[in-house]
Amino acid sequence: MAEFMELEGQDGVRMAWNVIPGTKQEASNCVVPVSAVYTPIKPFPNMPVLPYAPLRCRNCRSVLNPFSIVDFAAKIWICPFCFQRNHFPPHYASISDENLPAELFPQYTTIEYQSPGEASSIPPVFMFVVDTSIIEEEMAFLKSALSQAIGLLPDNSLVGLITFGTLVHVHELGFGTIPKTYVFKGSKDVSKEQLLEQMNFFLIKPKPPTGVIAGARDGLSSESIARFLLPASDCEFALNSILEELQKDPWPTPVDQRASRCSGTALSIAASLLGACVPGSGARILAFIGGPSTEGPGAIVSKNLSDPIRSHKDLDKDSAPHYHKAVKFYEALAKQLVHQGHVLDLFACALDQVGVAELKVAVEKTGGLVVLAESFGHSVFKDSLRRVFRSEDKDLGLSSNGIFEINCSKDIKVQGILGPCASLEKKGPLCSDTIVGQGSTSAWKMCGLDQATSLCLIFEIVKKEIPDATLQSSNNQFYFQFLTYYQHSTAEMRLRVTSLSRRWVAGPGSIQDLIAGFDQEAAAVVMARLVSFKMEIEAEFDPIRWLDKALIHMCSRFGDYQKDSPSSFSLSPRFSIFPQFMFHLRRSQFVQVFNNSPDETAYFRMILNRENVANSVVMIQPSLISYSFQSAPEPALLDVAAIAADRILLLDSYFTIVIFHGSTIAQWRKAGYHNQPEHQV
After folding, report:
1. Residues 91-147: pLDDT tens digits?
2. Which of 136, 332, 389, 654 has the greatest count of CB atoms below 10 A from its CB?
3. Domains with residue ranges and CATH for the chain
4. Treating both helix axes as pointing N-terminal to C-terminal, what angle do 598-608 and 613-620 enclose, rounded to 10 degrees?
5. CA atoms within 13 A on the CB side of 604
């Protein structure tokens, strides 16, 4: 496992098969697909950032990399993907064996380009969308957290504010003399054109012709935009004044009804406003929602308390009257946000469900963050909100406007990506007919991404026949290249290029090579993402049966055994933990939805779909660490035998942490030994 983690430390990639099955049939027999979990902008301390534009292949547009064949005398390089011969431009004239550019150094398989002068002129944009249909206590918690967050905003960032309950209030922060808001009916969907007209965007400049979408580039003046989006340094006082005076929604709620809450309308107005003012800017909508949407488009339940919120059983029976309509609405919103390049972050804090299951598509396709907590006073919410804006060593490294592209050898096709991205529908020879997740494309939009965002790429081997031994030994490498063009947190546009080479094997005797290159942790994570995806899109899918069949096929293919002798079965150490992972995955919250609401299940799957292998493995199989006086902290088996009187056990399941004190330790704690000077560390 150490060598796979070393590869991840160099390129941010973990592949299930590091020696790849060479034919379609071999790949099918391997059960776990040829796949990679890739973290596009994982920070590497030794990675060079080159201050010039990359050199691209004339034919396939791949970037010059250490696997390119270079003819120094003729000043030509051959692309490893399409074998096109490319001439070096004049400024590469001095290259030689002893004088290589950084992109040809064998250790720099991941490299970044920073084109001079390519920086966004628009500063970071944050649109706060705040729910006011919550109780006074929650309102106080939320106002306090928002005040702290506003204090952490970068001075040059643009800020806007929308509050909603029964009605949607768009606050005109640029009108400093008195608070001024535009009010919209929560039960009615407002189009972009209606929004702009009602908010007097066309008083200074004439309205653009019908069919033309107004925006900062053609229809709207900077004065119009500055009414609703102001630099944080200019509007901090106005924002704090509005928050101080902000009250819970004044409309009365009958005792037998839920509060009126128009979350969908508010988010739609926020998206349209940002689309008009700052299209393509990487703006973020931060939605703070404290209960279920009951009004207007995107409503998930009626106002009558006698109507329960949809459960998994209701969804299975197709008896959730609002679900499909709400999902359709948020799919349209997701499409709009992706087109504009904007991100939706969701902070859902309530004891009840708020509609995360319906909102999932909009948050995931835009690469947004999601936080689920019981209250706005909970430390999970407050700490998470601070992390979004904190710019210290451990900041999230929030980036925006990403475009992710893949190049690979001609015998490999891309089935799709499972993760926070949206297809750009760039069809071509690399696209497989089989679609998994965001497929039928070789380019994806990542409106928002951070240093931990990880994508799961699923590939298909298309080579049908086994090549002869001489060809196999001379040309036995598959090549992959991942290109991530994104706006860095410093506003610079950068291109991250990761180039990989993996050996392929086929025919008799290849099993030992496949076993040697199997990464069981990465394979478990790929299976977890796959089973979660299939459960959401396939109506009659049986996840337990699917996982069991996959495990049986894996064991029959790679295990050693004698027929009709169960005791003779053994697995290579490379596979030995994989059945254990499948055992825990079958019982995990990704597969077993019992005792979880649809919101919780959606939240768990969204986090699984964006985290790296190490964190995802902990979600599947919790880690248990034992602390005692006799030894250093050590991993313990997830078994009752790990419990002892003189031990402290720490269970980490990623979403929750449980600390267990043995009876002796508990007595010491009760006696206050840990507070005595001689026992302090």
Report:
1. 999 999 889 999 999 999 999 999 777 667 788 999 999 999 999 999 999 999 999
2. 389
3. 1-117+398-465+473-518 (2.60.40.1670), 125-388 (3.40.50.410), 622-680 (3.40.20.10)
4. 140
5. 23
